[in-house]
Design a protein that fits this description.
Number of domains: 1
Helix content: over 70%
Radius of gyration: 21 Å
Number of strands: 0
Number of helices: 7
Order of helices and strands: HHHHHHH
Distance between the termini: 31 Å
Strand content: under 5%
C-alpha cells in the first residue's frame, strides 16, 4: 500500500492464523452439523420404493409430492457435509494421519473419502480413534454394497440394508465431528499437534 508521501508500506495482516483456523473449525463444524441433519432427515422421510418392480418405483415417484424436495435436501446436505470434511482436513496435520486427511479431501469425488478420513482420524491424536474406525467400516460397506449391486445388476436384500446402514452411520459420524469442530473453534478441545510437526 502507498503512503501519502509516496513510499510503500507493508499491508498489515487482516487476522492472525489462529483466528482463521478457529473460523475454519466454526464454519466447517456448522456445515457438518447442518449437512448431517439435512441429509439424515431426507433419508428418513424418503419414500419407500419396491424392489424388483420398476413400474412400482415409477408409481411411487409419480405419487410422491416430496420426491424432488427430498432429493434436493439430501444433495445439499452432502455438499455441506463435504464442507465439514474440509475443516477435518485442516484439523489433522503432520505424519501419516495428515497425509491420509489430504488424500481424503481430494478423493471427495472418487467414493473413497470416508475410508481415508476414517483412517486419518483413527491414526491421529485429534479425535477419538474409534470415530475413525466406525466411519471406515461404514465407508467400506457402502462401497461393497455398490459393487454387489453392480455385479448382480440390481439391489439385493443385503446390499439394500448396507446402503441404508452405511450412509446413516456416515451421517451420524459427520454430525459428531461437526460438534467436535465447533468445540475446537471455541478453544475447548484444541487440536493437538503431532510430534512430526505441521504439513
Amino acid at each position: 500500500m502507498t503512503a501519502t508521501d509516496g513510499t510503500f508500506q507493508a499491508t498489515p495482516p487482516i487476522s492472525d492464523p489462529a483466528s482463521a483456523t478457529r473460523w475454519v473449525f466454526r464454519l466447517g463444524g456448522g456445515a457438518a452439523i447442518a449437512g448431517a441433519i439435512l441429509a439424515g432427515a431426507g433419508n428418513l422421510i424418503h419414500p419407500v420404493t419396491p424392489m424388483h418392480d420398476q413400474v412400482g418405483v415409477a408409481r411411487v415417484m409419480a405419487d410422491s409430492e416430496i420426491w424432488v424436495a427430498v432429493h434436493l435436501a439430501i444433495v445439499v446436505g452432502i455438499l455441506l457435509m463435504l464442507g465439514g470434511l474440509v475443516a477435518v482436513y485442516h484439523s489433522i496435520r503432520g505424519g501419516l494421519a495428515g497425509a491420509l486427511a489430504r488424500f481424503g479431501l481430494f478423493a471427495g469425488v472418487a467414493g473413497a473419502t470416508f475410508i481415508l478420513f476414517g483412517l486419518a482420524v483413527a491414526l491421529s491424536n485429534v479425535y477419538p480413534r474409534w470415530l475413525g474406525w466406525v466411519v471406515l467400516v461404514a465407508g467400506a460397506g457402502s462401497i461393497a454394497a455398490g459393487l454387489i449391486q453392480a455385479s448382480i445388476g440390481e439391489p439385493t436384500d443385503a446390499s439394500r440394508g448396507i446402503t441404508i446402514a452405511g450412509p446413516t452411520v456416515i451421517t451420524l459420524w459427520t454430525l459428531v465431528v461437526g460438534i467436535l469442530l465447533v468445540r475446537k473453534s471455541t478453544g475447548r478441545g484444541t487440536p493437538a499437534r503431532s510430534p512430526s510437526g505441521s504439513s
